[in-house]
Automatic annotation (TrEMBL):
This is DUF11 domain-containing protein. It comes from the Archaea. The keyword Methyltransferase does not apply. The keyword Hydrolase does not apply. Residues 130-214 form the DUF11 domain. Gene3D superfamilies: Immunoglobulins. PANTHER family: TRANSLOCON-ASSOCIATED PROTEIN SUBUNIT BETA (PTHR12861:SF3), TRANSLOCON-ASSOCIATED PROTEIN, BETA SUBUNIT PRECURSOR TRAP-BETA SIGNAL SEQUENCE RECEPTOR BETA SUBUNIT (PTHR12861). Keywords: Membrane, Transmembrane, Transmembrane helix. InterPro entries: DUF11_rpt, Ig-like_fold, OmcB-like_DUF11. The chain crosses the membrane at residues 384-402.
Amino acid sequence: MLTLALVSLVFTGNACAKDRFNESIQEGDGYQINTIVIDVAEVFVSADSCVFIVYDEGNEIENKMISSDQTITFTAEGETIEVTLLSVSEGILPQATVSITITHDDDDVYLKQEVKGGHEKATYPGTPSLEITKEVSSYTVDQGEVVTIKVTARNKGDGKATEVRFSDPKPTGFILQEILLEETGQMTIDKYETRTIFLYKLQANEAGTFEFQPTRASYSNEADMDFPEAVSNIPVITVTDTGKNARKVAELEFSTSIESSSVKRNDEVEVVINIKNQGDSSANGVVLNIHLPEEVEYKGSNSNIEIINGMPKAYLETFGLNQEKEIKFVIKPTELGTYTITTDYSYQYEDGVSPDRQEVTGEFTTSTIDVARGDLDSVIEQPWYVIAIPLLIIVAIAGWIFHRSRQYRF
């Protein structure tokens, strides 16, 4: 049991504060300040002393035995913490009475609590991570055509994103036609949640190539810690002139699908790249360079893929109007974690106006693949002797049975 009594709260200036507490903590319990946990590891009543072990997010940073009236001083996360042993006493479990002094900037201490069971039972504020995706219904349109813009946000972190605010500037050269969805104001996005934030339609008003401004979001976690601003991708839309001198363009649209987004380590999974030419000109010399993480192995393909300098590459000599094609390949994740596969592409086309071929480059990324432990991982990860000793016992018994059977035969 931990009994907490606030003795005094002293402010020094406008930016610095000092908290002082007296506490009685049983052996094996601890006290948490932000990510710091002070464990009362052992209490020696007869020696009037105690062992304190200090952890920062589970990592040991201090281990010391002190006697009554002695002090441990350490710094963590910009805070100076002093732990003084006042006395020790018997009980159901031995306990230590301590004085803890925390010197910190205002608002830096966001968590102070008893931790029954010490650092092993401590919990910490999660870390949110927002990923913003800005999609457009078509990357090439004629003047006067309408495109649909969709902005989604996914929290890939292990903590809730709080105080989330989005900004989404509209591009020049377009007229806002209709707002289908618009999440405004402050919001919260739970961990692993995906949410549509904006959905609207724009009419292309001018010919040319237009680079959209990214959607941005500011956010914090449940401990009111601010995180770097999240920024979306930057779509580029080409608006063609509808007059007689309108240029033609090959517009290859790439999308991906994965057989399963959650697999076990060393399981094989199929990845499919879908290609469609939605433009009005054929594409030539289409090259796909597939970048696999080091922890993911390429296992083969029945499509047009070759391994060049250790990288899977696909080459399509021509890609006609309205043509569609699937490129399939198999991968095997070998380590736990979350992975994506990024592919960069390039192709050329004739626009019917310029004497030179036009070249297009870009990249696209699959959705995430979450890799969990495999069925045999727990066996493989055992120390050799855990497997070897039972095998030796089995071999010894089999040998004894064989020996006895030969004795009975004679």
